[in-house]
Amino acid sequence: MRWNWISGVLLAMAIASQSSAQTQISVYIGTAPPAIVYEEPGPPPAADFVWIEGYWSPASHHYKWVRGHWERPPYEGACWTHPHYDHYREGWQWHEGYWDREDHDNGHWREHDHGRRHHGHEDEDRD
Description:
Blueprint: H1 2-20, E1 28-29, E2 50-52, E3 55-59, E4 62-66, E5 69-71, E6 79-81, E7 84-88, E8 91-95, E9 98-100
Antiparallel strand pairs: 1-8, 2-5, 3-4, 6-9, 7-8
């Protein structure tokens, strides 16, 4: 009886781990995305908000501009990795933006965010 219970728990754990695994879907578009649109962010709604730059999102077989916006990081020290495209033989592949504990942009936005503290670091205000 005990072995049946342990087997059932192990089976449930295996099923749960498969269903919670991230599914990756690749989206390719044949033409390059348009140039990034500069948007003036205006003042943040609160001191702990960071500016998330706008981006071109895939929409069917074309691109749709998603406006930049202020967002509160989900946890202390969170770094935003901006959405972007990589070019491959199949076309332009879309990579969604996400919050992470590491700076996967390698400081790119800190040098280009003009004091908006894109990554939420207080000591990195630059012009």
